[in-house]
Amino acid sequence: MATNQYFLPDAPAILKAADRIKPYVNYTPVLSSSTMNRKFNANIFFKCENFQKTGAFKARGATNTVLSLNPEQIPGGVATHSSGNHAQALSWGATLVNTKAYIVMPRNSSRVKVEAVEGYGGKIFFCEPTLKAREETLKKVLKETNATEIHPYNDFRIIAGQATAALEMITDLDKLDIILVPVGGGGLLSGTLLSAAYFSPDTKVIAVEPETANDAWQSYKAKRFIPSHDPKTIADGLRTSLGSLTFPIMLKYVSDVITVSEEAIISSMCYIWERMKIIIEPSSAVPVAALFEKKVDIRNKNVGIIISGGNVDLKDLPWNLYEKG
After folding, report:
1. 3-state DSSP call for residue 8?
2. Residue among 44, 20, 48, 46 nearest 34 (CA)
3. How confident is the model at residue 5, as a pLDDT?
4. In whole angstroms, what is the distance from residue 174 CA to residue 60 CA?
5. Is residue 130 located within the same domain as residue 172?
6. With helix as H, strand as E and coil as C, how does 230-280 read?
7. Which range of residues forms the domain containing residue 308?
8. Within this chain, do residues 240 and 203 fall inside the same structural domain, yes or no?
9. Is the dihedral of CA 112, 118, 119, 121 positive or negative?
10. What is the per-residue pLDDT across 260-288, written as a single tens digit (0 to 9) for each?
11. Domain-embedded: residue 124
């Protein structure tokens, strides 16, 4: 089956996506921490997408999608709405095919992510920080530019690209009992679920999201789509709702959806910085927080955690804000 926006990626499609993006993205390392292993009595493996091109897993999906475009689509450029990581990834990915990227970003987007988009050559259109505003602004941009829309997560080409992160981790490790994944729009979660189902069917995939942005948890429990309404969370990459493509994949394959507190997200992020000496962003700390809040039993298990990204504003660190109240 071809990897495109219309068909659910099968195993060959994910392998093809991995081959397509291989010359352009990083095969990121899997790290471990003896301190973490002792603390939780488990073998914990961190798939470090914070070391990915543009600093996040989003480079995988954006690259796969841009390289899958029809030749006649490329001259008009690509466009999307994104709070930052997909914006950076698409801006960078557009350079691979020598085209323009038009990016709609909320006004409250991280400064460092805005500067990165501009650094990769993306043209930014700011809007109010609501999904409605993002979508309406993007419609205007698409009309003005005739660019091709590349949705941040609700596109099977994106999902196939994101699936390659879990594929690499599954390939590198003998056996994973559990994979913990942050969930916002669900692109990374969907890709991880498909890779686990195809290449490691005994591995359980658990989605984790902030308590204050718990639309995926609500949707999973209700077995119907419940959108997010003005979520307030430090994890800016997880403020979006699930999509029409990602929600059914989650319902079919996910083992559980759990939530964590803002306090746990911040303290877990700080802990990883201090103990593992790697920079992770708040969204990446969400699945780590699930361990600290004992939301999932991992004792004596092999556990994979996808560190989704490391794009943070070093002048605006969350634990400093939290300490100030």
Report:
1. coil
2. 44
3. 67
4. 23
5. no
6. CCCCCCHHHCCCCCCCHHHHHHHHCCEEEEECHHHHHHHHHHHHHHHCCCC
7. 11-56+155-324
8. yes
9. positive
10. 999 999 999 999 999 999 999 999 999 99
11. yes
Pairing mode, strands 204-210 and 123-127 = unpaired
**Same domain, yes or no, for 85 and 229?**
no
- Tell me 29's DSSP state: -
Q: What is the pTM of this model?
A: 0.94
- The radius of gyration computed from the CA coordinates of the chain, to the nearest angstrom, equals 18
Residue 128 and residue 150: Cα distance in Å, rounded? 20
Task: Please tell me the distance from the alpha carbon of residue 105 to that of residue 137, in angstroms, as a whole number.
Answer: 9
- Domain with residue 207: its CATH number is 3.40.50.1100
Number of domains in the chain: 2
Which residues does the chain have with pLDDT short of 70?
Answer: 1-5, 320-325
SS3 at position 130 = coil
- Phi and psi, residue 136, nearest 5°: -65, -40
As a whole number of angstroms, the distance between CA 325 and CA 88 comes to 31
